[in-house]
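Progress against Task 2.4 (sequence-to-structure conversion) is shown through the following example record, which the project officer requested during the mid-term review.
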Amino acid sequence: MAGLLEGHIAAVTGGGSGIGQGICQAYAREGARVVVLDVNLDGAHETVGLIKAAGGKASAVRLDVTDRQACRDIAATIARDGNISILVNNAGINRRNPITGDAAAVAKDWEDILSINLDGVFNVTHAFLDQLRATRGRIVNIGSIQSFVHVSWPNSAAYTTSKHGVLGFTRALAAELGKDGVRVNAIGPGLIETRINAEARAKNPDMVANVMRHTPLNRAGKPEDIAGPAVFLASDMSSYVTGCIIMADGGFRTV
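Structure tokens generated for the chain above:
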């Protein structure tokens, strides 16, 4: 079913690499015009280049999701060429340090992670809210397996807290915006192989092995494994789905 997103304008935060880049490419293949938002403008341009080389339509915009005014300004600029109807809140970071460690470092990690992973989701969503209500749009938030569990990923209190918050925000917004025809859902990735976490995976083979022992599909995921659910949630195929999180974790939570 090609062209599932024909006529849509999609904005994707953190679209310059990894999961975000995979989602941008998938949306463009399905006919959407994609606005790639990333604090790393070079990465955003890389994604745009991949999309255009495949015949798709995309543009790159630098955005720091922690800057609330910048989010508003960029939303207003994008609206001049048409309101978005799809928003993907994907931008995020992680640092795995014990909360019992150096107090200053722990506090810095907490502030940085929450400001991007949770406050950033609010900032971007609020900035585009009028457009999404006008288009009866759909929001896709990227949660995590850590929206539910954390025992396989110790030393990540801030990240786990942020992803629990993303799931709560998803459900609260779905309840509030349903009357406006706006659907709000999330995806919960398990361990996904990206360039960003390549070093962490290489340095923590025991962690990777532990995750694989709890993953019935017996492999780590790839960005395209998240892109499929993201297309489904952005398309009319999920027209009666809101307030949900689709787990794309290889079955981790079943074991």
